[in-house]
Queue: 2 jobs
Job 1
Amino acid sequence: MTFRSDPAPMRGRVDLPMQKLIHITAPHLVAPRQTLYGLDPAARLGSVLADVAATHSDAGAVLITGDLADAGQPTAYETLHDLVDNFPIPVHLTLGNHDSRPGFQMVFGGDGFVHSSIDLGRWRVILVDTKDETSVHGSLDGDRLDWLDQQLTAAANRPVLLAMHYPPHDLHVPNFAAFGLKDPKALHALIARHGNVRQMLFGHMHLNVSGMLFGIPFSVNRGTAQHIALDLGQRGKPAFVAGQPSFAIVLLDVDEAVVHHIDGLSNLPMLRPADPK
């Protein structure tokens, strides 16, 4: 399993073949033999990983953007380790608000923020740890913005995909408005100064959302655990539903990014079979 990677330098522009990565988020794993809202989070994540290994083995990386465990139990991280260890595609992890940094480190090691920087073709993929230690908000305090600044500087004129748990802006879902990323203006200023971030991926919301922030396209995936029934008037606890586990396929061409959300359509009744020609 790849936990961290050191980016290799890119000398000049080279038109490379289209790259593929897989975005998974919010598995919310629990202790063995436990369920979460009547669901088995490990089985749901396992089914997604099996699908990815069987049908997307050409992917260059799998990103899992936080809320790895629902309550931060070390045994939940042991389950995750069992699922991703020796996976045929490099897996890169970061933390979300439900995670426990000490619990994660007991199983996966490390002693700091959980970042990764990955080169896929012409693209640099940067996965940033936004877990705050003292609140349910996301945070980029400590040396995290400095680290990101260094990564964006090293990327130079290459297109960058930025991934993290928290969206850096209010996405107009009322029940999430109270615990977003702290000080998003600092992140915006950093991104604007470099000008090379072309696509962003987030988790946290248990919804499929897309749009544009800071003039940059973004995508949020529902994740593999419980989903949320969107209600734009709901300001208290949201309604959880048991939709199919979801993940996203991200296709990176020379200067273009396309995101496909996969939501278990293959398990629905077939209306017309595909024509193999």
Job 2
Amino acid sequence: MNLTAKELFSETGKEGVLLELKGNQDVSIENIAAFSNGQKGDLVFVPDEKAFEVAVKGSCSAMVLDQKMAESSAQVNSETAVFISANIALSHAIIKLKYHDHDYSKSGWDRIHPSSVIHESVTIPDNTIIGPNVVIEKDVQIGEGCSIMANVVIEHNAVIGNNVRIHPSTTIGWDCVVGNDCLILSNTVIGSEGFGYSQDQFFNHHRIPQTGNVVVGNKVTIGATNTVDRGTYGPTTIGDGTIFDNICHTAHNVTIGKNCIILSGWLCAGSTTIGDRVVASGGAIIRDHINICDDVYLVHRAGVLFDIKEKGMYGGTPILKMADYKENLKIAQNLKGLVQKIEELKAMNP
């Protein structure tokens, strides 16, 4: 990255929701840094007044301020460039992704590592990188601009889209499909065997083969140590733009909509359907064959035991609407006092 403030604003202004550029428009920007330790040549993102008090004492060359803080720009040294953003978090994401993401081509290996095992039926595009000990089986399709890192296994007939990064020791199962612009972190398994068994009269377990697949949409992130089970017959589906934190499990034949946010500890049993823009905070657990509508927030280790048909925020186990959940929490926090009051009433009326 080596741009003047004026060039950065011209290249990224609209895309990065930058509204205005003040101060020194010709200053050189070489790096993006934290607001707490910005140096000459650095661009920093300043989310609030508290952060601004720290950043303005430093020596960064440029800063991005939220629109609500535009008046604070008068306090900035005239040699510093100041960008005003309509959405500073979005500006941070777009600008850093464009100019300051990690370069995965710096692994030091050949583009296709000699230790990789790639079936002769597979074509690797010229701009895709294959790391050490990668195994790619028969009839796999690999897209343009991918980074497939050490010890990844991609089983037969899987399809990997364009610009996909698959981190070390991940497995993509047979027939599974991963869309474009996806990020899959280490030790994740997509297309693991769904948990399907039946029992006889002696309680012996008989496996039901899981012969479906997993279909992952575009711009999906699946965190480290996730498991996504393949369907029994049809697919397990993850919609475009959905992001998973680390350590989550999604069972067979689950359908998850678009732009959902799934945080650590997610456990979702089979044949459940999740709508669009559902947010599940840490530790959420979903029973099998549940339907959750769009625009639902699950908080406080939500345990979903029945369908959610109305958008809103729900918490606790079993889930309650947020107003009821808060009221119950207030009562629970005073249980000792309530018991004491009951005992007093019983003593008054033996």
